Every structure is written in C-alpha cells, then in structure tokens.
Amino acid sequence: MGWFSSDIDTFDELFVHTLQDIYYAEHQIEKSLPDMIAKASDAELKKAFRMHLKQTKGQIKRLDRVFKMIKSIPQGTECPAIDGIIEEADEIADEIEDKVVLNAALIAAAQAIEHYEITRYGTLVAWAKVLKRNDVAKILNMTLKEEKATDKKLGGIAKRKINAKAAARHLRKPSRGEKAENALLDVAAGIPAI
Ligand SMILES: [Fe+2]
Ligand SMILES: [Fe+2]
C-alpha cells in the first residue's frame, strides 16, 4: 500500500471490510464459547452460554448469506479488538481460583464481547440502509437483536445473583483495628463518617 492508494477506497468496500471484521470475530467467539461453558459453574449461566453458542453458529450462517447477497466471498479479516477482548478474558479467568468469582468474571467478559458485536452490527445495519440494501439490513438486524438480548440476559443473571454471591465470597467484617484505620483514612480523604 503506497501513499496514494488504500485497500479501502469506497463506502461499499468499507462495508465489506466491516462485514469481514465481524465474520472473523464471530468465528473467534464460536471458538471461545465452549471454554466459557466449561468454566461456568452456575447452571443458568452455562445454559445462557450454550444457547448463545447455538445462536452464534446461526449468526455465522446469516453472514454467509449476506456475503452471497452482496456477491462477495465470505471471508474474515483479522480483528485485533476481539482478539484482545478474548485474550484478556482468558488471562483473567486463569487467575481466578474461586468458582463463584469466576462466574462474575465470565459474565463481564461475555458482556464485553456482546458490546463489541452490538457496535459492529449497529454500524452495519445503518450502513446497509444507506447503501439501499434494506434486505441486508434486515438480516443483520436479526443478529443485532440477539446480541442485545444476550447482553441483557447476562446482565440480568449477574444482577440477580452472581455478583452478590461473588461479593459475599470473601466479604468479612473488618477488625476493630482495621475499622479505626479506615476511619482515619476517611478523615484524611475528607469523607464524612455516616
Ligand atoms: Fe455474535
Ligand atoms: Fe454474541
């Protein structure tokens, strides 16, 4: 690529590039979900991950369809963003021994993945409409809805039980000495005693 040329010149090419980006991302997610299912120890969370793996396979098929509709070959383009999110999730999971705390970490990681997908699909739906491809926008919007619903579902599981369980895990009452030390630190920080 030289100074006066670029791999992406037109809006159509930008659309295809972004489609390839999410195609790559979906395949990486498909690969990482079985590991997340194995690591989750909460039955409801396991089930939610399992369901999303099934959905993800369907979403890849939808993307295959979209590539065909725009007469392009289905292929991915490396996406460092999703690789980074998944890599970070793996690293954190490896550091957590407590199964309950791990469930909270898994949800947080999965929600980061969903948010990435939501931003990509949101853009693609908007662009498909501008490109007068409402047929394509409609298909991509089906996936966007699934990603949003998954994010909401995971957030609900976290809020309803996982986060509180994880917080209660190592929560212990501070000793009298720690309490006094905390009070002194609060005064120093200008935090009024409640
Ligand atoms: Fe997806
Ligand atoms: Fe997803």
Keywords:
single chain; 79% helix; mainly alpha; Ferritin; 194 residues
Cofactors and ligands: fe (ii) ion
Number of helices: 6
- Second-tier CATH architecture: Up-down Bundle
CATH topology: Ferritin
CATH class: Mainly Alpha
Strand content: under 5%
User: How many distinct folded domains?
Assistant: 1
What would you note in describing this structure?
With 194 residues, the protein is mostly helical. It has a single domain (11-166), classed as Up-down Bundle (Ferritin). 79% of the residues lie in helices and 0% in strands. The chain is built from 6 helices and no strands. The chain has helices at 11-39, 43-69, 80-95, 99-130, 134-169, 176-189. Helix 1 (11-39) packs antiparallel against helix 2 (43-69), helix 2 runs antiparallel to helix 5 and helix 3 (80-95) packs antiparallel against helix 4. The longest helix is centred in the last third of the chain and has 36 residues, at 134-169. The chain is elongated. The chain starts with 10 loop residues before the first helix and ends in a 5-residue tail after the last helix. Mean pLDDT is 92; it is low at 1-5. The structure holds fe (ii) ion (FE2) (2 copies). Residues 52, 56, 114, 117, 147, 150 line the site of one fe (ii) ion.
